[in-house]
Design goal:
Two copies of one chain form a homodimer.
Chain A: H1 3-9, E1 11-13, H2 24-30, E2 47-52, H3 59-69, H4 76-84, E3 88-96, E4 99-110, E5 115-123, H5 132-146, E6 151-156, H6 161-166, E7 170-171, E8 177-181
Chain lengths: 184, 184
């Protein structure tokens, strides 16, 4: 199946005619310049933001996004494996006509029953502070909830703790502490 | 394959002749009453503590262990699924002659590349404070490290934070916070 077919069969676009899940405010904001007075159908230069759960992401697109976010490079072989064994892979695309650009990403490991842990949340710096990170996360939470997973966890860098708080994530509920073990 | 065959093909026993990985101190401690002056071979009533990565665990054995630890019961259907989709399942058994008893458990979700998260660490209260939880966790860490997973995480209740600290786990390194999202 071509990328586009896959993208749109597994995706949710932020446009009024695909609105099912996301907030009206965001939908309005991100629904692109809709044809005014044009003939029916999608305008050629319409800008849309599309969310997808298709895990088949071009690793170079992803590496470019991670570079832009400032993350240390990781071996593509391992990134491929991590995506393959993630339960959920969410990507966000800016789509203009036939062009698409990867602007957001997150993935989650899970036991598919009780717990999921979200990793590698990235939004292209050019697209930050527009509510897209929030939309990406809400989409991920919604997908995990649809699988009846009730305990969604993550490890947040200090500068994004408040971002996740606003999404309903709690720090150390009942004194539970996130802990890390690294090799010596 | 019978339970016993599987158990011993996927297991590490704490006895001197199977010593590969674990600390001499523990091995000595947990190696059972070894036959003194008896004929060669394993004494019939020898007590051994055996660690296994076989995920095929009797769910009623596991439920009994969780009951003894005081955890709320969970639907066996979901427990089965969670075990199936865990990357690593570690169990600890007390073995006396032909009898075996599940005395410890832990499992980990993982992307098999970068991150693993350990869940459901349980040691039978009758067997606590003997170093077995430490042995179980070291075994789990060793198995994850053998898969080249470098970031091992968990969420620790307040009363076990120091236990995990002694194993080398750090709370909030560089200000990274464990966060939880629960349904309303």
């Amino acid at each position: 199946m071509s990328f586009w077919k896959r993208l749109f069969s597994n995706s949710d676009a932020f446009s009024t005619d695909h609105n099912k899940n996301l907030e009206g405010e965001l939908l309005t904001y991100y629904t692109a310049s809709r044809g005014s007075g044009q003939s029916p159908g999608r305008p050629v230069n319409e800008r849309r933001i599309v969310l997808s759960t298709d895990p088949d992401i071009d690793l170079y697109d992803l590496e470019e996004l991670c570079d832009r976010v400032g993350w240390a490079r990781r071996p593509l072989r391992k990134v491929r494996k991590a995506i393959r064994y993630s339960f959920l892979v969410v990507s966000m695309w800016e789509v203009r006509g036939k062009r698409r650009r990867l602007i957001g990403f997150a993935r989650a490991t899970s036991d598919r029953a009780f717990n999921a842990t979200i990793w590698d949340v990235a939004i292209d710096p050019d697209f930050q502070n527009q509510g897209l990170g929030k939309a990406l996360m809400k989409y991920a939470i919604e997908k995990l909830r649809a699988e009846d997973i009730s305990n969604i966890t993550l490890f947040a860098d200090p500068q994004v703790v408040n971002f996740y708080r606003r999404l309903g994530f709690m720090v150390d509920p009942e004194g539970i502490k996130g802990m890390f073990w690294y090799p010596d």
